[in-house]
């Protein structure tokens, strides 16, 4: 048996699984997006671009998603990078496992429970009441974009930490030692050595968090209080409440197209850093 045939046989089960669970549902959604809403709700066969023409009616959901998803990704990155750097470079080996487990601990609890905890913390009897006790004016936190952003960062931070940690863990410490021996300031060594070599982890973590945030609906529903809609919330409304499957499919297709564009940009950026920087200058 040739290598090509052996490879094909080994890949066939995974390929069938991929086609059945990803490609086939996407094909169904694409077909539905050209249909119409039946009189009793659901889907009626047809071929029209009316659903795509109605996409601007959900512009607010797309704007919220395309604003808060990148902001949430950036905020997660700004918090996760120092934490991952500390775990990979500064912590002694005997403490690493313990601290990594502590990073994972929030995932042991349902995101629903964690979101309800933030409802209390950001509600009138939580942080606003604490700030008011110090003489500060009353600040509304819950049911705002800020609350959604806090929930996003809290919920997705571990997914950002681990890819960056893995990239930093593989960093050759001898490069930093050589840089120090040559008299390079620590901040310059970080910018010229550590950061470029950790970029694959940064890009992977950012894309992982961003893609998941694009489909998020629970955190905006709970912490946004129905005032901060994501595309995920619009899809829940269209498929389960108004039962406009055709329009919901068109919204889903538009979201998939946006994600594919982002993944394409990610792969292009990752290709530039796949083999590390071309020239690491220590002077």
TrEMBL record:
Alphabetic keyword roster: Cell membrane, Membrane, Plasmid, Transmembrane, Transmembrane helix, Transport
Location of the ABC transmembrane type-1 domain: 62-266
Subcellular location: Cell membrane
PROSITE patterns, per the entry: ABC_TM1
UniProt KW Endoplasmic reticulum keyword: no
Membrane topology: Multi-pass membrane protein
Family statement drawn from the similarity comment of this UniProt entry: Belongs to the binding-protein-dependent transport system permease family. CysTW subfamily.
Protein name, per record: ABC transporter permease
The organism of origin for this protein: Qingshengfaniella alkalisoli
């Amino acid at each position: 048996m040739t290598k090509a045939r052996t490879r094909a046989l080994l890949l066939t089960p995974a390929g069938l699984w991929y086609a059945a669970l990803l490609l086939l549902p996407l094909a169904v959604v694409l077909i539905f997006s050209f249909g119409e809403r039946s009189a009793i709700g659901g889907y009626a066969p047809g071929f029209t671009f009316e659903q795509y023409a109605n996409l601007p009616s959900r512009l607010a959901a797309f704007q919220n998603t395309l604003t808060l998803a990148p902001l949430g990704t950036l905020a997660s990155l700004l918090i996760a990078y120092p934490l991952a750097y500390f775990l990979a470079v500064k912590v002694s080996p005997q403490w690493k496992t313990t601290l990594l487990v502590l990073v994972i601990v929030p995932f042991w609890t349902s995101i629903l429970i964690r979101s309800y905890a933030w409802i209390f913390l950001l509600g009138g009897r939580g942080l606003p009441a604490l700030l008011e006790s110090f003489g500060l004016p009353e600040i509304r936190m819950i049911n705002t974009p800020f609350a959604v952003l806090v929930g996003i960062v809290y919920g997705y931070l571990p997914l950002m930490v681990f890819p960056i940690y893995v990239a930093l863990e593989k960093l050759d410490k001898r490069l930093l030692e050589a840089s120090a021996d040559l008299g390079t300031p620590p901040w310059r060594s970080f910018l010229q050595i550590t950061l470029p070599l950790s970029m694959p982890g940064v890009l992977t973590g950012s894309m992982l968090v961003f893609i998941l945030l694009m489909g998020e609906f629970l955190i905006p529903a709970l912490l946004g209080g129905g005032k901060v809609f994501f595309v995920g919330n619009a899809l829940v409304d269209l498929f389960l409440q108004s039962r406009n499957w055709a329009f919901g499919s068109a919204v889903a297709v538009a979201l998939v197209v946006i994600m594919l564009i982002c993944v394409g940009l990610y792969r292009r950026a990752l290709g530039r850093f796949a083999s590390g920087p071309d020239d690491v200058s220590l002077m």
